[in-house]
Amino acid sequence: MLKTENITKSYNKVEAVKGVTLHVAPGEVLAILGSSGSGKTTLLRLIAGFERPDAGIVSIEGIDASSPIKMIEPSKRKLSMIFQDLALWPHMTVRQHIEFVLKKDKLSKNILNSEITTILDHVSLNGHNSRYPHQLSGGEKQRLAIARALASHANYLLMDEPFSSLDSMLKEDLQQLIIELKNKLHMGIIYVTHNIEEALVLADTIAVMNKGRLEQMDSKDKVLANPKNEFVRRLLRIE
Ligand code: ADP
Ligand code: MG
């Protein structure tokens, strides 16, 4: 289980995230829904360990990973964050992206090769091993970013607005892939979006953010049937 407890972060005078408590389990998809500036990216960065909280705790599988006095570095957490701009490495091919991450495991050549094949199979990129990022479509770039995350043995995948730059066909492909990661690999997935339809398609659980606060976190059905307040009702356009 990945949890935050009362996590809080300010930048100078801006309170970006205020006392957010949430959790996600392996095999669960949590959508964090909120408008621009509501603190979604900051919350993901706090969970991933790129920001130190002013207050509160992030714990992963029962171990405290972030608190005001303790920070486990991002690469040592069983999670991987995919940034909004993907942050692919322009001078590395598809295969090299995966190889670079797996090198840390010091595998024999045969095992390394079969791991790379397995990972690229998960994201259907095996035909593109020697392409560079600029030779990939938007959807393929997304899938490469996911493959790189898989190579790091993440239990949890954090995605910041993963669908925003994709057309609707590619969106469906990527949504299918996320369902596979959840079901086949039993990953816990947190994805951030400002798009209500996107939150409704994949999420088991929806967390609604408003000005740094969590307004409601419940199963999708419960949020739709019992919006906690007027803000949630209006955001989700519930009659
Ligand atoms: P979202 O991802 O929901 O659009 P962000 O987490 O990016 O929201 O931002 C939340 C608030 O925190 C905004 O008011 C934003 O301007 C502010 N903020 C985010 N990052 C920084 C930063 N590094 N320095 C100062 N202010 C920031
Ligand atoms: Mg953002």
Briefly say what this structure is.
This protein has helices at 40-48, 94-102, 109-122, 138-151, 168-183, 196-202, 220-225, 230-235, and strands spanning 2-11, 14-24, 29-33, 55-60, 63-67, 70-71, 79-82, 156-160, 188-193, 205-210, 213-219.
Number of DSSP strand runs: 11
User: What value does the Rg take, in angstroms?
Assistant: 18 Å
End-to-end Cα distance, whole Å, is: 34 Å
Which residues form runs of ≥5 with pLDDT under 50? none
CATH homologous superfamily? P-loop containing nucleotide triphosphate hydrolases
Shape: globular
Q: Biggest β-sheet: count, sense, barrel? A: 6 strands, mixed
Structural class: alpha/beta
Strand order across the biggest sheet?
7-8-9-3-10-11
Query: Cofactors and ligands present?
Result: adenosine-5'-diphosphate, magnesium ion
Q: Note the beta-strand portion.
A: 25-35%
Give a description of the structure:
With 239 residues, this protein is an alpha/beta fold. It has one domain (2-235): P-loop containing nucleotide triphosphate hydrolases (Rossmann fold, 3-Layer(aba) Sandwich), CATH 3.40.50. Helix content is 34%, strand content 28%. β1 and β2 form a beta hairpin. The radius of gyration is 18 Å and the shape is globular. The mean pLDDT is 93. The structure holds adenosine-5'-diphosphate and magnesium ion (MG). Adenosine-5'-diphosphate is lined by residues 11, 14, 16, 34, 36-42. The site of magnesium ion (MG) has 3 residues, from α1.
